[in-house]
């Protein structure tokens, strides 16, 4: 089974670590961890290509997660790469906005590895 | 998203029943994100006739503001040692490599406690927003609200050390804007 290329986008290094750990605890076969601390760095990673999925925080400096979502359709390498938004907010409006601009799902902090798996696995059906 | 920080927003008063919500919301965050189970902590009562307990603090205080229906500042306060232990549980060996990780971890915990707390209250979930976290550390500092405020505090034990968590709620006149409500939208962009 090949190793997954998952991009984790969050301005908090601690949160990036926690998300990566949760993905591994969920039993996903991760390759080298790909990280970005804001939307601009994320887009640079996306342009390198071959990502399986992106997990992105919404609220970040420089460029937030919603702006990233809006930019992705213009990037050839992002075609077909699902994005899951990670949010601290309990605001339904924020989630609806993310889904309306292309997010395939969302994960609310705090989360368990099981919840991460529930969100991520269905989007990797053709890959796993 | 429209940010509801003007006088038209219906302010929600602090409800004493929210203490039980906070009692549930805070440990949930610590258990899920730091893999640690908090137990209730009862701060020792001052001896009759003893001098008032000093308001000076030391260690580390993480803060996240809430604007909108509820104007408040959620804080998490603990010793520096406790903060390092929590950060180690969250980030593993990274803690030792980077001193900023401790502040990062405490800020994220505070952010998630504030978010989880408001998510459990339908009157707040869609009607207020969180600021980015701020973390203060050092000795003998005093936290003071400029506006009159009331505090809902819960305390927990983590490895025999107390962690204090409290939303400090500004007692606002609905027609009067607060410092939080005057903040730029860039500070409340969740």
Describe this structure as you would to a colleague:
The complex is a heterodimer of chains A (128) and B (190). Chain A is 37% helix and 16% strand. Chain A is globular. Chain A has helices at residues 13-25, 39-48, 65-71, 92-100, 113-120; strands at residues 6-9, 34-36, 53-57, 83-87, 105-108. Chain A has a single domain, classed as Rossmann fold, CATH 3.40.50. The termini of chain A are close together. Chain A has 128 residues and is α/β, with parallel strands linked by helices. A five-stranded parallel β-sheet of chain A has the order 2-1-3-4-5, with helices on both faces. Chain B is an alpha+beta fold. Chain B has one domain (18-41, 59-173): Chemotaxis protein chec, CATH 3.40.1550. In chain B, 32% of the residues lie in helices and 26% in strands. Chain B is built from six helices and eight strands; from the N terminus they run H-E-E-E-H-H-H-H-E-E-E-E-E-H. In chain B, strands 1, 2, 3, 4, 5, 6, 7 and 8 form an eight-stranded antiparallel β-sheet that branches. In chain B, strand 2 (57-68) and strand 3 (72-78) form a beta hairpin. In chain B, helix 1 (18-34) crosses helix 4 (100-119) and helix 2 packs across helix 4 (100-119). Chain B is globular and about 45 Å long. The termini of chain B are close together.
Assembly state: heterodimer
Q: What spatial order of strands do you see in the largest sheet of chain A? A: 2-1-3-4-5
Largest sheet of chain A: 5 strands, parallel
The N- and C-terminal alpha carbons of chain B lie at a distance of 9 Å
Overall form of chain B: globular
CATH topology heading of chain B: Chemotaxis protein chec
Number of domains of chain A: 1
Cα-atom Rg of chain B, whole angstroms? 17 Å
Features:
heterodimer, A: alpha/beta, Rossmann fold, five-stranded parallel β-sheet, 37% helix, B: 190 residues, alpha+beta, globular, disordered C terminus
